[in-house]
Design a protein that fits this description.
Elements lengths: L2 E4 L2 E4 L5 H4 L4 H11 L5 H4 L4 E6 L11 H14 L3 E6 L13 H17 L4 E6 L4 H12 L3 E5 L6 E3 L2 E3 L3 H11 L5 H11 L11 H12 L14 H20 L3 H4 L2 H13 L5 H13 L5 H6 L18 H6 L2 H8 L16 H5 L23 E6 L2 E8 L9 E9 L2 H7 L12 E4 L20 H4 L7 E4 L11 E3 L19 E5 L4 E4 L3 H10 L10 H9 L27
Parallel strand pairs: 3-4, 3-5, 5-6, 11-12, 12-13, 13-14
Antiparallel strand pairs: 1-2, 7-8, 9-10, 10-14, 11-15, 15-16
Helix pairs in contact: 4-10, 5-6, 6-13, 7-8, 9-12, 12-13
């Protein structure tokens, strides 16, 4: 086998792992000896590419609890292709149990992934992801470490069922919670729904954040084609994992890295797909953060520019009727991308070894009720818009496909909540002065203010309005919302209120105007009055004084910049230099 002399050791085929295992000194002796203590022999790892399986499995994360089985499938594929697989754990982020929000810890998990890759003798890595933030966190870390990488997502749950109706988590959580609060279903029925909603392993089966990020990952070219929608418990999910194990060895041989795949063209493809599937607003933040890691200038405005020319084709909850299991049977993401082939950068490179154009060639729609053909879209334009104006000078986002159309042009009086605790205390107060024309405003819910920018943006409609049949209100915040949520909700207002953005100056009774067609969100208050209010404004007290949370508050960027930590933008020092630390 050809070798390269480098600093007193033989580097086989230019692989990083050679720096650990092919040295002819005491360090090499110890590395090999310690590895052999696990029961392997020279024939298991010498001369073979070492493939890390970065596993976000955790019993605290229901979406990811099945990933150990997928890791076994990946190992089979790696071994078949002549590699040496080694599984390692990283921090796992579970939306359902982690407080105040997994978004607070996305960057911490990304650091865990990046530093694990940098520090260990890995030639390539397979990223096992599932729940919302485990996917972007893993990709952020791998993008900065920049060794050959491939993503295997865990897949969506099977559809929920209750009394003949298909249920989707957690869109139907929100829907039936409002029905329960309004007194239209009983507590026992609510418990039945609880027991019927989530009936298998996997992430939310709506087009929520986890499903959106799986589709976006496929569109970027970081995962194999057709895999985003395979149900978690379908045997084809394990087959995909095995194939990915074989593929990563090929990627190492070709030295194809995230920086080769995450190009401007790839990001444009991902944005097109985001609009076509009516995906989660959270994807905007994550894609901007990815771009910051690989040096691509990806502005918030580009998401809006690509919106009007990208048709909305996928009829899934929360904006539509169906669920991810149906989406897979209907043809999955390749069928969607084939419908918008003329809008895509077809020469974009992917982990499959083929281009995007080659990956989707011949894909067809099986069920046109779930995936609409290009000539019969749900809407001629995309589903996500970017707003600017006096209330959001650096931008805000809105998922118009999930909103009541009558509220897309709206002017109303603000009802302001200082934070989520104020909201919880007053939203169901019968004496709250609010009606269907009002605009609910929540502040101190952004990256710094919460901290972590939780999914608090789907403000609950006051009970007294629910009982009157009100199903939607205009709601504005510097928070995010779950990709499974719906309604006329303006999110990601930047700059956020906690750092002095205009949202901090809004008072109950102020008039606010939303003009989606004009992409404007305006606070209709005299400028002199706002100057006076700003002079009296003081920033909220720091939430944390120690540890990662303090680091986060000190360094997190705003939503329009991807909410990464300022010092994490860009790539790691060249990973091949790891030998200098040995």
């Amino acid at each position: 086998m050809p070798t390269m002399r480098n600093g007193g050791y033989d580097r086989v085929n230019g692989r990083r792992s050679s720096e650990w295992f092919d040295r002819r000194d005491l360090d090499g002796f110890l590395h090999r000896s310690w590895l052999k203590s696990t029961g392997v022999t020279d024939e298991t790892f010498r001369g073979r590419p070492v493939i890390g399986i970065c596993n976000s499995w955790s019993e605290l994360v229901n979406c990811n609890v099945h990933l150990r089985g997928l890791a076994a499938a990946v190992k089979r594929g790696v071994l078949q292709a002549g590699g040496f697989p080694v599984e390692f754990p990283v921090m796992s982020l579970g939306e359902s149990l982690m407080k105040p929000t997994t978004m607070l810890y996305r960057n911490l998990m990304a650091m865990d992934v990046e530093e694990s890759i940098r520090a260990y003798p890995l030639d390539g890595v397979v990223l096992l992801t599932g729940c919302d933030k485990t996917n972007p966190a893993s990709i952020l870390g791998a993008a900065s470490a920049n060794i050959p990488s491939i993503v295997v997502t865990g897949g969506p749950m099977l559809n929920g069922h209750w009394r003949g109706e298909e249920l989707g988590s957690c869109s139907d959580c929100w829907h039936y919670n409002e029905e329960f609060r309004a007194g239209r279903i009983t507590e026992s029925e609510f418990v039945e729904i609880e027991n019927s909603l989530s009936r298998s392993n996997g992430h939310c089966m709506t087009m929520g954040t986890a499903s959106t990020m799986a589709c976006v990952t496929e569109a970027l070219g970081l995962s194999l084609p057709g895999g985003a929608a395979i149900p978690a418990v379908d045997s084809r999910r394990a087959q995909l994992a095995e194939t990915s194990g074989r593929t990563i060895v090929d990627l190492v041989d070709r030295n194809l890295r995230p920086s080769d795949i995450l190009t401007r063209e790839a990001f444009e493809n991902a944005i097109r797909v985001l609009h076509a599937i009516s995906g989660s607003t959270n994807a905007i933040i994550h894609l901007i953060a990815y771009a910051g890691r690989v040096g691509v200038d990806l502005s918030l405005q580009l998401f809006d520019e690509l919106c009007s020319s990208t048709p909305w084709l996928v009829d899934l909850k929360p904006a539509g009727r169906h669920l991810m299991e149906d989406f897979y049977y209907a043809g999955g993401l390749p069928a969607v991308m084939e419908q918008i082939r003329d809008l895509l950068q077809l020469d974009a490179v992917t982990v499959s070894g083929e281009t995007i154009g080659e990956n989707i060639a011949g894909a067809r729609i099986i069920d046109e009720d779930v995936i609409r053909p290009r000539e019969r879209p749900l809407d001629e334009g995309g589903s996500l818009v970017v707003l600017y104006g006096s209330l959001c000078p650096n931008g805000a986002v809105m998922k118009i496909s999930a909103a009541d159309p009558r509220l897309l042009q709206h002017e109303g009086t603000a009802v302001v909540f200082e934070d989520v605790h104020d909201l919880a205390a007053r939203v169901d107060d019968p004496g709250l002065e609010i009606d269907e024309q009002s605009v609910m405003v929540l502040r101190n819910a952004g990256p710094v203010g919460a901290p972590g920018m939780p999914e608090w943006g789907h403000l609950p409609i006051p009970t007294k309005l629910l009982k009157r049949g009100v199903t939607d209100l205009l709601r504005i915040s510097d928070a995010r919302m779950s990709g499974t949520s719906y309604g006329a909700v303006v999110l990601h207002v930047a700059p956020e209120s906690a750092v002095g953005g205009p949202l901090a100056l809004v008072e109950t009774g102020d008039r606010i105007r939303l003009d989606v067609a004009g992409r404007r969100l305006e606070l209709l208050v005299d400028e002199r009055e706002l100057v006076n209010r700003r002079a009296e404004w003081t920033p909220p007290a720091r939430k944390d004084e120690r540890g990662y949370r303090r680091l986060y508050e000190d360094h997190v960027l705003q939503a329009n910049e991807g909410c990464d930590l300022d010092f994490l933008r860009g790539r790691s020092p060249v990973v091949e230099d790891a030998v200098t630390y040995l």
